[in-house]
Amino acid sequence: MNEHENGAPHESTVVAPASGSGELTTPGGLPARFENPGLPPHVYRASDVDPAAGKRAERQVAALFTLSMIATVVFLVAYFAIPDDSVFFFPGIGTIKTINVVLGLSLGFSLFFIGIGAVHWAKTLMSDHEIVEERHLLRSSDVDRAQAVDVVVEGGRNAQLDRRPILKYTLGGALGLFALPFAFQVVGSLGPVTIEELKHTIWDPSENGGKPIRLMRDPEMTPIKLSDVTQGSVFHVMPETLQKYLDDGKHVLEAKAKAAVILIRLDPNLIKVKKARDWGVDGVVAYSKICTHVGCAVGLYEQQTHHLLCPCHQSTFDLTEDCAVIFGPAKRPLPQLKITVDDAGYLVAPEGFHEPVGPSFWERAR
């Protein structure tokens, strides 16, 4: 019989040996105790017994770290040397930027060779003697803390850093250089950006020689007449200037990402904000499709309530209130695009956006 901590007895889980047997068993028939099987015999590697094999493995690891350094240098040179508009055609994918491919491959190979070098080092040179540590209380004594430094030093000795300094230097070089691409990327992406740069899209008349820009159906790229837009109808719109980017095959995605517009017609008497009425034509209004929360496409229109809904996080905008936010995490209204009608009856944008489109980390005056 054994006792709980509170003194209440309970029945032992160990069953007495059957007649003629000296082995204790559990109710399930398993042995109550297991003998420690010990460790299997240690198998020595070639580098453990042959100095030539150890030297060969050392050179192989150093070569892998050196290849990592070369790949990182290729990344740094390509970052500055390859023009941003350089492209090439890749079968099955299409036209892609040269700099994206070179930066991606060089950075990938840099990390790959560091990883392979570290694995090869561990497998061939680092100590592989099996060590068993008995379980103990989850606390460290002052003596244990004092011994921590000795453990680190011993680990370096087992890794043969003192005997093979070339590994230490090439690993340090590979890891040091590998950090530089991230520093360049961070510094490059955090460069000075003005509000004017954020506001500029291909709706800007400067993209069309200073002339108003026609509104085009997306993706057909056909112009839209005022008479085409009936009550409650919704058009997904791109500027006529996008055609230039489609023909060149350069920066198309960047241009489309900022220029997407939704065009809707509602009763002019429902529009409560004077600026919104003045920037539309007979109840036809145009707003950026890019949600001011995190940039998803706002493409769902509820005709009865005149609400626009972002499907990503349910931000809701009221068209009658100049697309003010009435629900969800978005903090700013959708920017409105001013539109008019040209002599041929087509809808045109005489101006670009007056505030940046997309996620609203800026302020927008109402």
Record the SSE blueprint.
Layout: E1 2-3, E2 9-10, H1 46-49, H2 51-81, E3 87-90, E4 94-97, H3 98-124, H4 142-158, H5 165-189, H6 195-199, E5 213-217, E6 234-239, H7 242-248, H8 252-259, E7 261-265, H9 274-278, E8 284-288, E9 300-302, E10 307-309, E11 316-318, E12 324-327, E13 336-337, E14 340-341, E15 347-349
Antiparallel strand pairs: 1-2, 3-4, 5-6, 5-15, 6-7, 7-8, 8-13, 9-10, 10-11, 11-12, 14-15
Key features of this structure:
366 residues, 15 strands, four-stranded antiparallel sheet, disordered N terminus, Rieske Iron-sulfur Protein, 14% strand, alpha+beta, elongated, seven-stranded antiparallel sheet
Q: Helical amount among residues, as a percent range?
A: 25-40%
Poorly predicted ranges = 1-14
Average pLDDT figure? 85
Distance between the termini: 81 Å
List the helices and strands in order: EEHHEEHHHHEEHHEHEEEEEEEE
Query: Could you say which structural class the secondary elements and strand pairing correspond to?
Result: alpha+beta
Count every helix, treating DSSP H or I runs of 4 or more residues as helices. 9
Rounded to the nearest angstrom, the radius of gyration is: 35 Å
How many separate structural domains?
2
Q: Taking strands numbered 1, 2, ... along the chain, how are they ordered across the largest sheet?
A: 13-8-7-6-5-15-14
Total number of beta strands: 15
Tell me what portion of residues adopts beta-strand conformation. 5-15%
Shape: elongated
